[in-house]
């Protein structure tokens, strides 16, 4: 029997998106122009195409202008850097998003570093990473920001809580740890070299799994009554042998028997990523 309360990321995201739409209307009533987001997609990665389509639809619904720049996979790094430079100069563009992953011949770090930090609504630029790590205001990457919003809505104050972040990527693990430290949690960052991961995880009141390995975090790793935020999106073969299904980094059914709160996959963190992109775009526009 499942004991854990499922955290409905889709419902939280819809509420946040409605709040942003209201804020856009209010800003325009006060004389501002509509926020504008440039979305750059290079290549034909099927998942990226879906994510970009969903981001553009979410912008439209919230009254945010989106300007799509699609380029084929043969685009050179120099051409992409030139596009980013042009968007940096464009005063009608508040936010710039370059969808990842980029084709292998392009150095993603170089492209991210070329985005003006004050238009970097993905929060991936080293200046924004530094601002977050040092407690300064800046843009926070959308996925960890969405995780924090879900934790705040579910638990309220998390100061003093023991948290573990499993994974140390620049996009999720590291910024997530900074956000939790900012919220005064006691934070452990675990990774592939960590010794006795189950034991470390069992100490935590809050578990954020962002490791990219299907169902790696097991129910018996968890402290009863903890809160589990599953960032993983892994496509695996169905047991029937035909087709695939999405699973997270957490073995959901087992974990839901032990945790007090848990995000599902799909329908947990993913929808919050897109809602937080809108939040960051509104913030970029209101600073311009
Ligand atoms: N420039 C960026 N690139 C990438 C980011 C990012 O934040 N900025 N994150 C991911 C992909 N991503 C957004 O871009 C993203 C991933 C997943 C979801 C989502 O809603 N997932 C659904 C399931 C979707 C499915 O069926 O495949 C869910 O979890 O419910 C939204 C956005 C990498 N690239």
UniProtKB/TrEMBL annotation:
Task performed by this protein: Catalyzes the oxidation of 5,10-methylenetetrahydrofolate to 5,10-methenyltetrahydrofolate and then the hydrolysis of 5,10-methenyltetrahydrofolate to 10-formyltetrahydrofolate.
Domain Tetrahydrofolate dehydrogenase/cyclohydrolase NAD(P)-binding: 141-287
Pathways per UniProt: One-carbon metabolism; tetrahydrofolate interconversion
Keywords: Amino-acid biosynthesis, Histidine biosynthesis, Hydrolase, Methionine biosynthesis, Multifunctional enzyme, NADP, One-carbon metabolism, Oxidoreductase, Purine biosynthesis
Enzyme Commission code(s) on record: 1.5.1.5, 3.5.4.9
Family label: Belongs to the tetrahydrofolate dehydrogenase/cyclohydrolase family.
UniProt-recorded name of the protein: Bifunctional protein FolD
Highest classification ranks of the organism: Bacteria, Pseudomonadati, Pseudomonadota, Alphaproteobacteria, Sphingomonadales
Organism encoding this protein: Sandaracinobacter neustonicus
GO molecular function: methenyltetrahydrofolate cyclohydrolase activity; methylenetetrahydrofolate dehydrogenase (NADP+) activity
